[in-house]
Amino acid sequence: MQKLPKGLLLSLPAVMLASIPAMAEGAIVNPTKLWIETWHEFRGDLFAIGGIFALAAIYMFIRYTARSPGQVGEPVKLSAAAAWAWVLIPSAVFLADDMLLFGKGWTLFNVERVVPQNAVEVKVTGHQWYFEFDYGNGVTDQELVVEVGKPVVLRMASEDVIHSFGLTEYRIKEDLVPGRITYLWFLPDEPKETHVNCMEYCGTGHAQMATPVRALPKDQFDQWVAKHKSASAGELKFASQTLDGTASK
Amino acid sequence: MTTATYDHVPSHSGGGLAAWVFSVDHKRVGILYLIGSMAAFTVAALMALGIRIEQYAPGESGVINYFVGDFSKSMSTPDAYNSMLTFHGAVMILGFVIPGLTGFATNYLVPIMIGAKDVAFPRINSFSVWMYLCGVILALLFFVIPDKLDMMWTGYPPYAVKTAGNTAFYVFIVQIMGFSSILGAINFITTTVYMRAPGMGWNQMNMFVWGSFFANVLQLIFLPFLSTAVTLLFLDKYVGTGFFDAAKGGDPLLYENLFWLYSHPAVYVIFIPAAGLVFEIIATMAKKSIFNYKAAVYGGFMGIAVLSGDVWAHHMYTTGNPNWVRLIMSFTTIMISIPAGLVALSMWGTLYKGAITWSVAMRYAALCFVLVLFGGLTGIPLAEAGLTLHFARTLYVPSHFHFIMGLFATYAIFASVYFWFPAMTGRTADTMLAKIAFWFNAAGTQLTFWPLFYIGAEGMPRRYWDYSVETMGPRALDWEWWMHIATYGAIINGIGLFLMVSGWAYCVFAGERVGRNPWGSKSLEWTHASYPIGPGNFDEPVEVTADWTPYNYTK
């Protein structure tokens, strides 16, 4: 669906800003870690700008408080050249900072949206108010269990209204839109249990539309798969769901 | 001009009910807008308090049903919360901030500031305000109808089509308010273009006149998109068409595109005139001309207006749009920081070498400096699709837009009420009570939203009535502590607002009388308007000289 932009647009910053060694070597960059790094860089930049403007405002609030009633401000007359300079120089500075930030954002976006070749695919369907995961080979479940160290790509759709697959601890989300197949990928890099929350408003059960995301080491993951296969063998697909969204495990 | 003592109140503050209902005087129309928008604000602000009370701790608070008029508790807590949040969003935006700026402030101030006797089409103006007031009354009927609307102010299909909530009710409110706004926009664009006093060039206009002008241009261009979106939504739900129904060949994203094609420019419909009000107040209270006026108007305001229609899909970074669309919108969105930066430079520069008098209006203007600075800067990460794949739909987003749009505009409007109170009533509202209320409001806004910024960045979703360890992990325990602070902040803010409005009510009737130009302004509404101000605004036609500006304090 998005072949052309992925190939053309998204690879550009990777070439231009080959500042991330791992990317150049072809190893997988963890988008979660890169998100956090990028956010910290943005935050530093914004606190610096915010600090300058805040200090300037506080200084002027104090320094330029009228000393006597009836006092008027000293006129600041700008020549035409000075007026232009006060437009062009700040604009150039803002533009330069914007481009710097946009470059960082683009690099991050590139990592977040280009799925690694070896990613394991899981199909996700959104319902009011639960997610359903189809691991292929007839294994379906209402919780997401993944193997540590293997990138996971989710191909997602919705059965009823718009939902959103919010992996807030992995710093990524994408909507589930009726009539479309959307995707996201993430890299579970350590064994841990997190949650996926629905993040597009979908009605009464919206705040409770959550399910665990368990990242298991390889041996435990294999056990889980084996157990699940035998448990669901012979059962009808999706038979484990109930209407209120709770799974009978 | 004489400076006689002020011994009677302006004529438009008296008169019987009929004199108000049938009035076509822009000042009375403006005050009707203020009354309507304050009614909308009061109720929607109570809803905000309800939101913070419900989120104070995980689990059901058990009280929010009362906030939506459900005294028999027939609704579940999530349903009551969702209705409350829908009402808060829709009514704050459509019923308070936009009419507060393009209704109240624009009506009351623009004709006097440009030296006109009234607006171009006074009867249409009267029609606009009554249509708007009907919209407010309709919105308040929310409390008595069954099947309360619960589709959030964004009203995304398919949810808004499938819900049992009353989507038609929402559509009618939007259409009535929208039609009122379009008529108002035509009226004020015409007034500003054709009715300026002889001699008043474009570069001599007040900053607020510019702000209002750009806001009305944006309303006129972009409102039809919203109108189209909600009309198609109505047809989908009640006639069975399939514009947004994927099963019938439609697309839910079509609605989102149409909706944000209006609703993003609407942010600037709010921001630009609010910034204009702040400029009026700081220039007058610091007795300074606007720093680099042309840069603020043509670079700042106009730049924002031009870019406003090119950035809408940054509300849709996670909705399955193609990646290249997200990147282009990241680029156009971050470009907004350049004109916005020019507006900020002129705001900051206007104070430089000024002589600031700390009236209550100036204090609120200083609060607006805080809100615009941090509201603006927190928007820069949101411009980046890469970062917003996480930020989208977390509490970080509402915190950002409350700072830059909601609170900035709200406190610009409230500052304006204090600032023009002497013009409207002949009395001042600058009392000790008003100063106390200010500190409650200033502390309340910051205490409420900084915790929400923080837990939002950590991943707390918006539009959630509940949060718990079961659905979010142990983080929820940490968030509960921050939610406590936000709730205390909202209560402090609520006390401040109550004191503020009480002070106004008292001062309308019993405030201290002041002279015609208590702030020593150079703007026409203070220097040339008839005294006390009445129908026709001016005793004799106004003419301005080539070196006149509303901010010329050196002459």
Give a brief outline of the structure.
With 249 residues, chain A is α+β, with helices and mostly antiparallel strands. Chain A is 40% helix and 22% strand. Chain A has helices at 3-8, 11-16, 21-25, 31-63, 80-113, 218-232, and strands spanning 120-127, 130-134, 140-141, 144-147, 152-158, 163-167, 172-176, 182-186, 192-198, 210-216.
Describe this structure in words.
With 249 residues, chain A is α+β, with helices and mostly antiparallel strands. Chain A is built from 6 helices and 10 strands. In chain A, the strands form 2 sheets. Chain A has a 5-stranded mixed β-sheet, with no helix packed on it. In chain A, strands 4-10-9-6-7 form a 5-stranded mixed β-sheet. In chain A, strand 6 (163-167) and strand 7 (172-176) form a beta hairpin. In chain A, helix 4 runs antiparallel to helix 5. Chain A is elongated, with a radius of gyration of 25 Å. With 555 residues, chain B is mainly α. Chain B has helices at 17-21, 26-54, 64-67, 77-113, 122-140, 159-162, 167-194, 207-238, 252-285, 293-307, 323-335, 337-351, 360-377, 379-383, 385-391, 396-425, 432-458, 469-472, 475-510, 524-527. In chain B, helix 4 (77-113) runs parallel beside helix 7 (167-194) and helix 17 (432-458) runs antiparallel to helix 19. The interface between A and B is large, with 87 and 92 residues.
